[in-house]
């Protein structure tokens, strides 16, 4: 349903009514994997940050209606140290990274709480050079 999205305030009211606790839960909700919730309507975007960037968007804590710290304001491990940890995992693609952060990659250590699941959002554009750099596949 590209281009036909519910107005920001109406979409936010619906989303807040779902009582989604975190960005991670939001992703599961968008995939239809969060039980006990109404299905996400097609006119509510999976990536509201881009869709509503100039229409009232301030962050996921506002979108979900909770007090979680903004993803960008969270205190993450310094980028070089986080990247070094990730490179030791020997993941080869963004798909493998997604599997790892979802906890479905066997034989890998758990993702530390101070390393973001979405480093492309968490780290500055100056530091973030892309998935190949993050994973060490370049």
Describe the structure.
- This protein is an all-alpha fold and 138 residues long.
- It folds into two domains: 8-68, no CATH class; 79-135, no CATH class.
- The protein has helices spanning 8-17, 23-30, 48-51, 60-64, 79-88, 94-101, 119-122, 131-135.
- The longest helix is centred in the N-terminal third of the chain and has 10 residues, at 8-17.
- The radius of gyration is 16 Å and the shape is globular.
- The mean pLDDT is 88.
Brief characterization of the structure:
The protein has 138 residues and is mainly α. 39% of the residues lie in helices and 0% in strands. The model has no long low-confidence stretch (mean pLDDT 88).
Task: Provide keyphrases for this structure.
138 residues; mainly alpha; 8 helices
Number of helices: 8
Mean pLDDT: 88
Write down the secondary-structure element order.
HHHHHHHH
Give the fraction of residues assigned to helices: 25-40%
Number of domains: 2
Strand count, sense and barrel status of the largest sheet are:
none
Quote the distance from N terminus to C terminus: 35 Å
Structural shape: globular
Enumerate the spans where pLDDT stays under 50 for 5 or more consecutive residues.
Answer: none
How many strands? Answer: 0
Overall SS class: mainly alpha
Strand content: under 5%
Rg on CA atoms, Å = 16 Å
Any chance you could write out the topology, listing elements then pairs?
Blueprint: H1 8-17, H2 23-30, H3 48-51, H4 60-64, H5 79-88, H6 94-101, H7 119-122, H8 131-135
């Amino acid at each position: 349903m590209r281009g036909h999205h519910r107005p920001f305030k109406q979409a936010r009211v619906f989303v807040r009514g779902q009582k989604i606790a975190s960005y991670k839960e939001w992703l599961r909700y968008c995939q239809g994997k969060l039980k006990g919730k109404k299905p996400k309507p097609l006119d509510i975007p999976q990536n509201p940050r881009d869709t509503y960037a100039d229409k009232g968007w301030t962050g996921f804590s506002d979108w979900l209606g909770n007090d979680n710290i903004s993803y960008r304001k969270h205190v993450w491990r310094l980028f070089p140290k986080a990247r070094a940890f990730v490179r030791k995992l020997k993941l080869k693609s963004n798909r493998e990274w997604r599997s790892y952060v979802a906890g479905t990659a066997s034989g890998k250590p758990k993702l530390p709480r101070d390393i973001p699941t979405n480093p492309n959002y968490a780290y500055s554009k100056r530091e973030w050079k892309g998935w190949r750099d993050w994973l060490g596949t370049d």
